[in-house]
Amino acid sequence: MWNRANDPKQLEIRRREILDKGFELMSQRSIDSVLMQEVADGIGCGIATLYRYYSTKQAFVVAVSSWKWDQFAKEIWDSWGKRGVDQGKSAAVHFELYLDFFLELFRNHSDFLCFNQFFNVYIRSEQIDAETLKPYQEMIGRMREHFHNTVYLKAEQDHTIRTDESEEKMFSKTIHIMLAVVTRYSVGLAYTPEGGLDAMEELEYLKDVILRDYKTG
Question: 1-55: what fold?
Answer without folding.
Answer: Arc Repressor Mutant, subunit A (1.10.10)
